[in-house]
Amino acid sequence: MVRMSVAALLLMVVSVPAFAQDDYPRVEMSIGYSNIGFNGIPQLTCLPGQCKSTRHSGFTSTQGFNFKSWLGVENMLGYYGLGNNLSMLSNTFGLKAAFRGGGPITPYGVAGLGGGSLFSERSGGGAGGFNTRLGVGFEYGAADGMRFRVDASRMGAKYFDVSQTSFALSFGVAFSIM
Length: 178
Fold this sequence. Notes:
Elements: H1 2-20, E1 27-38, E2 54-66, E3 71-83, E4 86-98, E5 105-120, E6 126-143, E7 146-159, E8 162-176
Antiparallel strand pairs: 1-2, 1-8, 2-3, 3-4, 4-5, 5-6, 6-7, 7-8
């Protein structure tokens, strides 16, 4: 038993430098503030023909895995309060391409598809929908394993047969897990 423990410990110590040789993060997570434009849903938030674009606050969280220094996948989860006791949950999954030039700034582009839900606190019900995301952004390396992130995305949503696109702007902090 002692031999196996020593062998396992030696294997772990020898393999750790292999993980540190990557010059890019394998697993990333971020959390931050987001602001989205949303026209409203006539059945829930406004009278037909009187819906206007308004900005709504919320938060976003991203989780990503990078296959290469320039290519990875990213999941973006967003929650927004839409007013009138209505909230929206958006979840998109897609590809992320980044240009890691060795400097502190890393620009990237993302494209994803997913689903979402509208929730009404008054009725206690909700509705599912379809979401899209196409965006660009950059991360600024503040410290080892931590970066500030700015993301500008064009979000598409379809709820109750009403399709709309809007601009979402997110600010947050990204962390490298591995």
